Amino acid sequence: MIRVLIADDQGMVRTGFTVFLSAQPDIEVVGEAADGREAVERSAELAPDVVLMDVRMPVMNGLEATRELLAQGGGAPKVLILTTFDLDDYVYEALRAGASGFLLKDASATQLAEAVRVVAAGEALIAPAITKRLITEFARLGGPRAASGRRLDELTDRESEVLSLVAQALSNQEIAEKLFVAEQTVKTHVGRVLTKLGLRDRAQAIVFAYETGLVRPGE
């Protein structure tokens, strides 16, 4: 079972998410929180696998709560950011803070459940509109951060190629088809990339690839 904590300042939203997700055979909603501070506290209590985190909440916003949650290191939950704003300024910083996914609240109930499963499995989940915003933000910031570029030397040519395709939001299956290899082979390469670079999941890999200049906006 995937244990989920729902953090949103709107009671009706929390109730709606709880009712739907609780009906899924593989998902259990273990608690709710009305603000970011409560989300951090309840997460420590309940040890969820995934936290559905609203961006704009009182007391502590979703970005600050995400940073605090993921600063705990090992054992921290995956964070799936939910927002009504596809051009929200928090997009870039939320992913840099370690959020594993970013989904608009107008997504269907089925998409929400699938997003929880994807994030729980360690994959990145970024809505197309959010991906465009993220790439625009990288372009605005003026290119790669040279200080972390040295770490790319630790990757083999194939691993660098796989990382660049991950950064384009391709799934393992799509990467396998593009490189004419087995999907399991791609999964192995992705795992090695994350381990070598000290990254939590594919969302962080996407950020890393853009920040180091391995992939550039517009390519």
Please summarize what this structure is:
This protein is an alpha/beta fold and about 220 residues long. About 50% of the residues lie in helices and about 15% in strands. The radius of gyration is 17 Å and the shape is globular.
Shape type: globular
Task: Tell me the name of the CATH homologous superfamily of the largest domain.
Answer: Response regulator
Distance between the termini: 39 Å
CATH first level of the largest domain: which class?
A: Alpha Beta
Radius of gyration: 17 Å
| Overall mean confidence score, pLDDT | 82
Helical proportion, percent range: 40-55%
Number of domains: 2
- Total E-strand runs: 6
CATH architecture of the largest domain: 3-Layer(aba) Sandwich
| Biggest sheet, spatial arrangement of strands | 2-1-3-4-5-6
Structural class: alpha/beta
Strand content: 5-15%
- Main sheet overview: 6 strands, parallel
The parts where pLDDT drops under 50 for at least 5 residues are none
Number of discrete helical segments: 10
CATH topology (level 3) name of the largest domain: Rossmann fold
